[in-house]
Structure formats: structure tokens, C-alpha cells
Design a protein that fits this description.
- By secondary structure, the protein is mostly helical.
- It has 4 helices and no strands.
- The chain is extended, with a radius of gyration of 16 Å.
- The N and C termini lie far apart (34 Å).
Amino acid sequence: MNPTTILERIRGMFASDTGEHLDRISDALLNGTLKEPAHPMSDQELARAIREFRSVPVSDWTLARLSRRLLEAPGPGDV
């Protein structure tokens, strides 16, 4: 799967406010300023990266932003 397809799938998982960031990554991959890894990540490397990511405490800014998004999100009957 090419990097652009992967980014499109990731884009579908997140709100539209991440679009600019993903556009920059996509442009960098297409322009050659961001390179794909020389080899895929092993299962052990992926597991380690996930553990490290999950061990980092969530910032107050992130919690506040998520709280706002939850408050602004339409309810099940509002759609």
C-alpha cells in the first residue's frame, strides 16, 4: 500500500482538523523530503513504540481539547 493511501485511511479516522497536518506529510512523501523507512517495523519494535506512547501522560491541553470536542459532538438523535 502506498503512503498516500495509508494517509487517506488515517485521515478518515480523525476529525477534519488533522487535514492540514496529513496534507503536509503526504506532500513531503510525494516531494521526496520525507522518506519511508528502509525496512518495516518489526512486531517487537511496534509493541515497544505502543508501550512508550501509552506510558506518556496525557497533557492538560489534550484533555481540555477532547472535552470540548465531546461537548460539541452531536448526540445520537441530533444527526
